[in-house]
Amino acid sequence: MEAFEAEFAAYCAVPHAIGVASGTDAVLLALKGLGIGTADEVITVAHTAVATVTAIELAGATPVLVDIDPLTYTIDPAAVEAAISPRTKAIVAVHLYGHPADLEPLQAIAQRHKLALVEDCAQAHGAKYKGQRVGSIGDVAAFSFYPTKNLGAMGDGGLIATRHADVAERVRWLRQYGWQERYISALSGYNSRLDELQAAILRVKLTALETNNAQRRAHAAEYGRLLAPTGWQLPTVAPHAEHVFHLYVIQTEGRDALAEKLRQQGWARPFITPSPSICNPLTPIWATKWAVCP
How many Å is the Cα radius of gyration of the chain? Predict the structure, then answer.
């Protein structure tokens, strides 16, 4: 595990990487490592996997949900500013579908209000914001290695990346019963280790991540060329972003008709969202190559 931690830290250009049992645990322990808990509020985006909010609640904090930029589907910095209260302690920015959130204004907000900035990178391994890899910009970052991710293990896994030595040390204690030395729990902790088998698999797969992400971008460009005449809203890539296309999400007024036509033509089953405003970011790659939103 230590070898993978070192290699992933180098890949993200951060000094510290700590493997944990899942992406949910990564967000939870990132918050706990920052000292966030009961009576604190954490601002995050309403349009995300439920795991983001679950982790905030498990830390004992209150999630405060704000809206998205409708083109990139990532957190709206102006909405964050408006949601800050005296209890706010952190912002969790989710890099959804592989597109980086707009981190520069979020950093400015965090610094102005003395808040921690947490990056949820579960869907964005290798993505870049203004040329810098996500996971290296905020105070702490959380990654998931669930099998469907761009960098996926054969089971659950997660990792926390940070440039802060004190946060890294606290997270290492927290992931294994609060041990500062074996069998001596200095604080209340968890059982959240990245197992050695998953770490070994991830070491191999990490060497192919850049190639795989480049293929995803190439496929997305071809989708864009072929789908341009449809009038659908296709994925937007902001000038600050290098997208890694964990999902290729479209919006269309004719959602149900499109889904039925795809079924009739024998395409992999498209994921159809139950809500007119939410696109589920956890569609299994074995089930679909499409996320079709109204």
Answer: 19
Q: How far is CA 214 from the centre of its chain?
A: 19
Report whether 221 contacts 248 (CB < 8 A).
no
Tell me the domain boundaries of the chain: 2-206, 209-293
pLDDT over threshold 60, residue 258:
yes
Specify the fold of 209-293.
Aspartate Aminotransferase, domain 1 (3.90.1150)
Band of pLDDT at residue 273, cut at 50, 70 and 90: low
Residue of 237, 228, 234, 264 lying closest to 252 (CA atoms): 234
Look at residue 32 and tell me whether its pLDDT is greater than 80.
yes
Higher pLDDT, 187 or 278: 187
- Quote the distance between the C-alpha of residue 8 and its chain's center: 16
Widest pairwise Cα distance in the chain: 64
Tell me if residue 44 falls in helix, strand or coil: strand
| Distance, CA of 101 to chain centre | 10
Return the beta strands (E) in the chain as ranges: 16-20, 41-45, 62-66, 88-94, 116-120, 128-129, 132-133, 140-144, 158-162, 179-181, 184-185, 241-242, 249-251, 271-272, 291-293
- Report the C-alpha gap between 175 and 170 in whole angstroms: 9
Q: Which pLDDT score, from 0 to 100, does residue 24 have?
A: 98
Domain 2-206 sits in CATH at 3.40.640.10
